[in-house]
Design brief:
With 444 residues, this protein is an alpha+beta fold. Helices cover 35% and strands 18% of the residues.
Length: 444
């Protein structure tokens, strides 16, 4: 890690940052000449800093604050090391960190440790998840009272409709996307295909599959930070909020995953179009945990505006082969690439918690050896299906009570997230939808 700074002597300051439960970067600005101290000793800030609400305020009844005297945690660098922050004008390096107790134990309230905890269950069985994420986001002109699409830097005109897979829509913002891909190369984020999506100024970029799920979550978390920063550098906003426009589709964050055994074989592949028993067991686990996981996949007040029938956001608990109306889709293609696509999460999620919930549910099903119901055919929105919780309060309650969730997440994280979301629910009820959008636009 020290070598990176030596090779970039123009970098004068660093940022150290960890993800809180909402996926917000919490950390410090440090002069580069003190970087060695951070690398050797880590840094410190209160454990409660990873358990703030969406406004960045303490949770009123959190035991992390008053009961413990707002005790510090020790934050140490992840294996990612230093990387540039190309959206800032001054040359700056970012050092991702995660939190531990003084005695070296992982802090269970850290979302990155929540994912590590799930991956240890896979490793104990000689298994390795391989993940890829698809992230949808909006480019937005928020300079006036009403949100609108930014004018094209090429033509000066604004898109007035969604243009699915439109090259023209992509080319209108070619300078932004070129700079974004260059920045991904600098930060070693594996950005792949970009497409124009169905919403106003909405796009999707896929990140390449990775056999290190912690790395995949890091990539998604850093990518969201990068997209928002680069958009501001170009004079507009980028947002991963679930539903900025009431009359257009919202943004999702879909994850594709398979699982390798110790010999590198895909345990979902048996050479057939339907896949193995292990695939069905993983699907069963994902379906069982879906009610309790809804708070992870739809963590904010605005999230549930996206989850309405017929909007390409699943509302029923189902699975299917090559069917995008279902919550779980098994894509077609080469049997060697047999995988599960989990389609429930919105773009506003914390990637660490989302991957922990998806992979944790799958390993629950694999360990249980349970079978899912029959896959649906046709339009899943018209089928008589059990439903994902349809509002924020029900999702919070389901998360707190779920036995599936209790197997995936540590009790401390469950408690912290429930307290956080109940505080946010209380205050969000006093705000208009427009005021809620104003809060979520830049944060999530």
């Amino acid at each position: 890690m020290k070598d990176w700074l030596r090779k970039h002597p123009h970098v004068r300051t660093i940022r150290v940052a960890a993800s809180d439960l909402n996926g917000q970067a919490r950390g410090k600005r440090i002069p580069t000449r003190f970087a060695d101290k951070v690398l050797q000793d880590g840094t410190r800030f209160p454990m409660s800093a990873l358990n703030l609400d969406i406004w960045g305020e303490d949770i009123d009844d959190s035991p992390l604050v008053w009961e413990t005297g707002d005790r510090d945690g020790v934050l140490r660098p992840t294996a990612r090391g230093f990387m540039p922050m190309p959206w800032l004008d001054a040359p700056t390096a970012l050092l991702p960190i995660w939190m531990y107790h003084e005695d070296g134990r992982p802090f269970d309230g850290d979302p990155r440790h929540a994912l590590r905890r799930v991956l240890e269950r896979y490793a104990a069985r000689g298994l390795t998840p391989v993940c890829a994420v698809e992230l949808e986001f909006f480019l937005i002109d928020d300079s006036g009272r009403n949100l609108q699409v930014p004018p094209s830097p090429r033509s000066g005109k604004r898109r007035v409709a969604g243009e699915i897979l439109s090259l023209r829509a992509l080319d209108q913002f070619d300078t932004f996307f070129t700079d974004l891909y260059d920045a991904c190369e600098e930060m070693d984020i594996p950005a792949d295909t970009a497409i124009s999506e169905a919403g106003l100024g909405q796009f999707e970029i896929n990140l390449m599959h990775c056999d290190d799920a912690l790395r995949a979550a890091d990539d998604a978390w850093l990518f969201k930070m990068l997209v928002k920063g680069m958009a501001r550098k170009h004079g507009f906003a980028a947002s991963f909020m679930a539903k900025p426009y009431a009359d257009y589709a919202g943004s999702g964050l879909h994850v594709h995953f398979s699982v390798l055994d110790a010999d590198g074989n895909n345990v979902f592949d048996d050479g057939s179009e339907t896949g193995t028993d292990v695939l069905r067991h993983a699907v069963s686990g994902c379906l069982s945990a879906m009610p309790g996981s809804a708070l992870i996949f739809a963590p904010h007040a605005n999230s549930f505006d996206r989850m309405v029938p017929g909007s390409h956001a699943p509302t029923g608990i189902s699975w299917a082969y090559e069917n995008r109306t279902s919550a779980i889709r098994i894509p077609s293609g080469s049997p060697a690439a047999r995988r599960i696509e989990h389609r429930v999460a919105g773009g506003d999620v914390n990637p660490y918690l989302m991957l922990a919930a998806v992979l944790g549910a799958a390993i629950n099903g694999i360990e249980n050896g349970t079978e899912p119901p029959e896959p649906v055919t046709g339009n899943a929105y018209e089928a008589d299906l059990p439903q994902i919780p349809g509002n924020w309060k029900d999702a919070i309650d389901a998360f707190e009570a779920s036995e599936d969730i209790a197997r995936i997440f540590a009790p401390e994280l469950i408690r912290n997230l429930v307290l956080t979301k109940r505080q946010e629910l209380h205050y969000m009820q006093e705000l208009t939808p427009a005021e809620q959008v104003n809060i979520y636009l830049d944060t999530v």
